[in-house]
Each structure stands twice: as structure tokens, then as C-alpha cells.
Amino acid sequence: MNTLPSDNKREKAVLVGLCSQPETPRALVEEYLAELAFLADTAGADVIESYIQEKKIRDPAYCIGKGKVDELIPFVKEHEVDLVIFDDDLTPGQARNLERALECKVIDRTGLILQIFAIRAQSAQARMQVELAQLEYMLPRLSGAWTHLSKQKGGIGSKGPGETQIETDRRLVRNRISLLKKKLREVSLQHNTQTRGRQTVPRVALVGYTNAGKSTLMNILCPEAEAFAENRLFATLDTKTRRLELSINKLVLLSDTVGFIRKLPHHLVESFKSTLDEVLQADFLLHVIDISHPGFEDQMQVVRETLKELGVDHENFIEVFNKIDALEDQELLKSIRAKYPDAVFISAARGVNIPVLKEIIGKYVARDYKERKILTHVSNYKLIGYLYENTEVIEKRYLDEDVELTFRVHKNRIKHIDALVGASEPLQYDTTDS
């Protein structure tokens, strides 16, 4: 598979997009190419030119028309272009034909995103997930990779080593895919075992389009998180989870997740499902949106569709419009506030309205808190200690040798308290909801 270099050497790239009126208007293709240029920059390439082909039906041999290919050839040679990147997926045959004609590397948007993920992956799990996605992407593209080894003459011995090598390579790739899937299942089981104790604490996941500012928000809400944040796409691949204290004995576990993007490769969505378990298991989601981006509503739709593909159907969904300091048009900000009255408007970089966001998170969490009353002997230190450490004790009254405690507790802890109550045989256990 062709890849971009991850070292300091930067390649010169040309972008190509397809426009099909009226389904895909030119303005939308230009927006896609602007994002593709950002992706190329993230991967280590400098975009020197962009081409848009207006074509109703894709050419089966080149994707774009032969005339556009002939237009590209002299430009690629004159400017010593290293790489041509297509915004649309190429078939293996189209990629090979284009490379032969242009005499340079040719990749599509999927290949570029896979390369960025390969560069960004830090943990062993993320590296395995990226490798799995790359191999599944590579498998149908192995055909022809060894044609230089094949014998051209017919007759005896005409079945050259090239064909054998392709089959061998495919078998090795399939075996590696099976091994990676097995390892990722094991990692997922280990992760579930390690996080079983977290189930009593409410969980919140940050989701959003890539570069919306999720990691910056994570760092300001949980300063000890030290999440990597920069103005690059897919700065975060590995899920980080940290404690967010809201008030005395009232906390949530906040998780930062990988960002989404248009045309996110299906292989990546499948591979990263185990990483996105935090989203599936979260009690509610914070959808972080870059309000300064002109196409933020399209990005919101991409996030919703990707979550749907992952099987996430959440009613508890807080929309957080970030980067309000970067939006110069205050009238536009007013109209967006009117359109999304339940949303929170913040600047994570400058700390604007962060206390308001924490207060709203607290209100969402409070929905799942119940008020309870227990009467037990003053010597029942185990139960009393647990309540003071894990609940919000509202009132304490002494009645002879007993103590009556009124407290608020998250619904996820009630079963554990039931077990302690049963073991200690209290005189009274009131389960009336507040």
C-alpha cells in the first residue's frame, strides 16, 4: 500500500475531486477538497494545486476522464509532484492505471486517513486497530503488485512466481487480519474487566468532528488529563478517561474519544469499535461543535450518522458549541443561540463559560440521583463510612444508639448499598424516591 512519509520530509501533492451536478455541487466539492488539504498537511504533504472534474459517471479506468488525466500529466512532471490524492475512493484498477499514467503515487481519501491514523497511533491497541484497517484496505489491492515477477511466455512454466507470490501474500495478510481480530477481542475483554468497577460512577463521553476542540475541553475540565491537543486532524486516537469532580461525592468519569470526519473509512469504524466502547457505555454525551467552521451543521450531521452506525442512540445529548471567541459575526452567534436554545456556548481555549458547562453536566447527573434514608446502629462503621465516602449526606440524626442518615446517591450505587444494608440488618431502610 502506498503511504505518505511520517518523517520530516514533506511531499508535494495535487488534489482531485469529482463534481456531479446537482447531487454534488461544485461549492460542496471545494469544501471537501479544503478538508482534504488539511488532511494532507496533517500527514506531511504540501498541496500545490487542486483539480475538480465535472463528470456525471465515473470513468471505470481512471475515475476521472482521460482528458483530465492528460491535463494532469504535464503538470505533475513540470512541478515534480510526488503524490496525487483523490477525494473519492478509487478501485484497485483505477489506482494502478493512474499511477502508470502520472508516474507518481496515487492514493484516495481512505488511504490518506489510514496513513494519518498510522502516524498518530500511540498505544498498542490503537496500533493494532490501525494495522487491521490498513490490511483490510490493502487486501483487494494486492492484485498486480507482483506482476514484475510474472513470466510472459506461454507453455510449460508459464505460471510464474508472481501469481504464486500474490496468493502467498494474500494468505499472509488474511492470517494477520485473523490474529489482529483475536488480539483486539482479548484487549476488549481485558478492558471490560478493568472498567467493571467504574459502572457505579456516571460516565460522560466527548464526541464530535475532528479538530472541534474535544481534547482542549478535556484538559480544562480535567487538568490532570494532559490530553494531546493541537490544530491538526485526528490529534487524539486513544481514549482517555479521567474523574471530573462536580461537588462533594458527586463526580463523573469523562472520556475523550477519536474525532469523526466525512467519509470515515468503514474499515476504521469497524476497527475502532472497541475504542469507542466508552461512547456506547456512556450515560450521556457531550457533542463538541466547532462553531467557527462555516459547515458546522454538516459536521454535526456527520457525527450523528457515525454514532448511528456505531449503534449509539442517546437521548442524553448535550450540544457544546466551542470556539465562540473565533466567531467574529456576533449576529450569527445570536441566531445560532436562538436555533439551539438548549446548547452550551463556550471557548475551551480561553475558559469561557466552562463553569456553566459544569453546572449543566451536574444537572444531567442529578437526574439519576435518588434520596434515601437509613437507620442503623452507630457501630455500623462499614455502612456509615461508605455512605460518607460515596454519597451526599444531607442530614444526620441520633436516636439513642442508632443514627438516621438522609443522603442522595446515584442510581448505579443503589445495588451496592442494598447489599451493605442486607448484611448489616438495619432497623429501617427507606427506598422512597425524592
Task: Describe the protein's architecture and organization.
This protein has 434 residues and is of the alpha/beta class. It has four domains: 11-117, Rossmann fold; 122-150 and 160-194; 196-366, Rossmann fold, CATH 3.40.50.300; 369-430, Alpha-Beta Plaits. It contains 14 helices and 14 strands. Helix 1 packs parallel to helix 4 and helix 13 packs antiparallel against helix 14 (414-424). It starts with 10 loop residues before the first strand and ends with a strand.
Secondary structure blueprint with pairings:
Elements: E1 11-19, H1 26-43, E2 45-54, H2 66-78, E3 83-86, H3 92-102, E4 105-108, H4 109-120, H5 124-138, H6 161-194, E5 203-208, H7 214-221, E6 240-247, E7 250-256, H8 266-271, H9 277-281, E8 284-290, H10 296-310, E9 317-322, H11 330-339, E10 344-345, H12 354-366, E11 369-377, H13 381-390, E12 392-399, E13 402-410, H14 414-424, E14 428-430
Parallel strand pairs: 1-2, 1-3, 3-4, 5-7, 5-8, 8-9, 9-10
Antiparallel strand pairs: 6-7, 11-13, 11-14, 12-13
Helix pairs in contact: 1-4, 4-5, 5-6, 13-14
Subcellular location: Cytoplasm
Pfam families: GTP-bdg_M, GTP-bdg_N, MMR_HSR1
Organism: Chlorobium ferrooxidans DSM 13031
